[in-house]
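Notebook, p. 212. Picked up where the previous page left off. The plan for this session was modest: take the two constructs that came back from the sequencing core last week, fold each one, and keep the raw output in the notebook itself so nobody has to go hunting through shared drives later. Recording the first one now, exactly as returned: residue sequence, then the structure token string.
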Amino acid sequence: MSGSIPTHGPVDPPTGAPIVEIVSAGNEVLIGDVLDTNTGWLCTRVTTLGGLVRRTIMLRDDVEAIGAELRGCLARRPALVFTVGGLGPTSDDRTLEGVALGLGVPLELHAEAERMVAAKYQEFFAAGYVPFPELNENRRKMARLPSGAEALVNPIGGAPGVLCRSGETRILSLPGVPGELMAIVDESLGPLVADVFGAARYEERSLEVELQDESAIADILRAAEEQHPSVYVKSRAKVLGSTRVIRITLSGRGEDDAAVAALLAPAADQLLMQIAAAGFSVRPAPPEDPAGAND
């Protein structure tokens, strides 16, 4: 099977995966005050949907820099660009200005976004979270979107998500508060996910080799990569209790579960056979504990 993934957006030729880029903006991250967990979460989510994150970058809250970066993204024609952070009511929240600059369109007061923001502040006031319910110019700022944009429901916070389009590329702007970002992705993006990723599937399988020296099996891994180019093969040393092993992870994308299994099974079988033939003990590995992912 080829493992190609049907999608309306641009794809990566070797894997057939929809290509995604992530642009994060935030002075607070670059000076070390805040840890960027959003990019890692988005990378994981995109990967599980069958997409391929090709590039991520962190920028200051600088309109010109954000606009220039977005123009660079659009020149590479990914299926989807995430921008993260900078959607709030304060003067340093300038991401949508940068998006508008990159797209070459003005910012405009968006009626539906304004309604969303107004409803949220009524809700926040009723709950005792804010001192007054009315929109002021700072709150209304969150409803000024690039011309032609679509406002997306933020189930938690005041700033709507924002979806823009340029050719076949979608630009999705998300707030930097992790809970809000996750809620928009999980609850407001059903049609976008279906459009960009289709029915794509991603799967990993792992092997464990009782061996401490990756170089001893490097040729075997290289042969598997060459014979199964649609499968990504990664090895790394890992500690299991008091024993060091080599953990080999094979990952692939396909249009459904059967297609992914057809990609991974032959590569896994080849590695099991060739590593055992080289005299090393090898076995299928259980799912990895995410807490130990960087061991």
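Okay, moving on. Second construct, recorded in the same format:
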Amino acid sequence: MIQAAVPLALMRRLPFFYGWIILACACAAAIARGGPAVATMSIFVEPMTREFGWSRTAMSGAVSLGGVLAAISSPMVGALLDRSGARAILCAAVLTTGVTLAALSQIHSLLAFYLLFCIARLNFAGPFDIGIYGAINSWFVARRAFASSIVAVTQLAGLIVVPLVGHVVMQHADWRSAWVVIGVLVLVVGLIPNWLLMVRRPEDMGLAPDGAIAASDAPDKGAAASATPVPPEPAFTRAQALRTRAFWMLSLFVLMAYPIQAGMSLHQAAHLIECGLSPTAAVSAVAIFSLGTAISAVAFGNAGRWISVRMALAISGVLLSASALVTAIVTTPLMGTMSAILFGFGLGALQTVLPVAWADYFGRKNFGAIRGVALTFQVTAQACGPLLSGVLRDWTGTYVVSLIVFAGLGLLAAMAALLIRQPSFDDGGETSLASPHDLPPQEKTS
């Protein structure tokens, strides 16, 4: 086990639950994750394709290839999470991402762009996701949805700040300088807190998730913790999870939803400019979509007591479908704002509820191994979205056809979500207990 740089004895004397420090570290990593995000990449599409003469398909291919590499490596990264914890994964991801993004300032060929950006994109799609949510799910159970919503909001703050920082730098210098600044920003924000303060799990400090005192500890050792009870949770192995219907229906939902997320995010600004909006209005729409995602994340992070996980996922699919349809017919800045808000609401629900669903349905004991396999489907779907948008745009001259396809995928995702059910012992798990966020009170008694 890799220990944090600050002694655990010092950490234990804090007057509050150390999980909130873990949440802050995860949020720092979530901001750093914005460096290779498609929202950030979208502001580089126009200036880089103009300078080098690359097609949109060629540039989108780097995002897709990075996703494919992440799909291949995610099962190994997930197993590493269960063995070593989130600290090693997040520090390595932040360090390599910051260095490769800054190095993009020196490229002069498509091959060099692919080599560097694919490394950063691999980290975004695999290690960042597994490390961030692995840390959150290890430290929180009853408060998991709330913690996940905070991470989602912070990540969206990164998706507002990082593209805007890059845009401002480009306005005063050029796109090469923007990559340098973004790379340095990733290193400063993401590396230091996770290197110094990240701890693998609460049991390493004599605590239990959500601030309860670990059963093996004397009461006086847990003085800094609250008496929050820890609800029972499932404990599926990877092999057991793969035999459940819930795993495959969640995976089907992911395969339908994530091409929309990645495909629309990457080409959003370019499409709005082609629809007649100014570059400033297009960048503002990207920021509005990020703000809408943050608002939605907070709402769905606190909605577990009223709606089930599967219903929340279905709502996200419907919102993503509606956003694609509205985006396809944008003609004014107002319509661009409407489409961005719908897209943000759908994406906020998706990013908040989906990590909670995986942990709630299958438990935290083998979360990394299970999430690593599931992430293969997610990053493959994310890889297909930008490539589909780029190919159809180059073929038809507009993004309208791809947006219509995305609208259909959103509806299919909603239908898949409604078919998800809590896995039981008969499916191969070690427990038949329902997850803390699976069903609202009115459904639990039905």
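Notes on construct two before I forget. Residues 78 and 369 are 5 Å apart (CA to CA).
Flagging for discussion at group meeting.
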